[in-house]
Amino acid sequence: MSTFKTLDDLPQDLSGQRALVRVDLNLPMAEGRATDLTRVKAVAPTILELSGRGAKVLLLAHFGRPKGERHSTMSLSYVQGAVEEVLDREVMFISEVQGPVVAQSVDILRDGDIGILENTRFWPGEEANDAEFARAIAANGDFYVNDAFSAAHRAHATTEGLAHVLPAYAGRAMEAELKALDAALGNPAPPVAAVVGGAKVSTKLAVLENLSRRVQHLIIGGGMANTFLAANGVDVGKSLCEHDLTGTARTIMDKADEAGCTIHLPYDVVVAKEFAANPPSVRTCNVHEVAADEMILDIGPQATEALGDVLKTCATLVWNGPLGAFEIPPFDTATAALARTAAALTQDGSLTSVAGGGDTVAALAHAGVTDKVTYISTAGGAFLEWMEGKELPGVAALSA
Predict the structure, then answer these.
(1) Is the pLDDT of residue 135 over 90?
(2) Catalytic: which of 89, 179, 200, 283?
(3) Measured between alpha carbons, how far is residue 88 from residues 22, 109, 139, 195 in Å?
């Protein structure tokens, strides 16, 4: 793992110092109120630690997609209350990100006080990663902390540019994320298993190609497993399947074979004639017994048990995507069962388990194991690009 500085590399006493801290405050909203405070809770330890050490803490974040123009409905003033609620502290809202208004506001703040700057995407220089814009923001800070891994795949002024202008550090959430990802794929303890699920192969081609070279066991579930089954000559009936990508699936299987990676596909499946909760037609069968009017909606119990046995032989697991149509019963069975197995092995200390992606987080919560796996990444796009083996600009800038 590339080396990066953390808050431990800063002086213990930060009195008189101005910290520009990039966080993710892109919160889901309803009727002007935040409906989920997870992202604020994730960055609270960094904010409170810097404040406690005497720094003036200035939060930088984006909110929505204003495309370089001011929109009253996308002002970060809307999330001020949510931040104050989580931190249990008063927070000043500052209506600019650069210039004299920010300078005057920072002068008003006392050591340890916290301010939120306006939505960084109101300025075209943010998404353009404009160096002048980054320098103008940096003029009101003494050092930069990035605690927004979820935005690390974007090379923007406040996610990447500032790290070249000011001394740069990883916040506590970013530090934890990078350590977890390094343990999962950077320098993992072998054997490594990867679970990749989801509807379509086309959205995860790069992920599958990268993982097939880097893990010992690749477990494919969800709708994309049907495309791989079809590539093996299985008639998948009216299941979701990208028949035009069976050649690509075949190539991935061949490359995995060359790399010594075992691809695991289900041999028993749960099928139904309609995509609905608890349909009367639901049954379990061998993959070669799927009728023309049936669709595969989950992995069967025998395959699920076999996958659990695979995890028992592994030291590391990285998971992205459900095994079946987990959002409707009974097609959540395999995902929940394998998640519980992974959680039990993690609790035993034999498995390091790292999971990420919106559906995955929801599936693990549904299985009741959120707090029993090693690490859950809530970063969608950044987590997926990391699984594809791409360098993330926001991370690379920290270790520059």
Answers:
(1) yes
(2) 200
(3) 20, 17, 29, 39
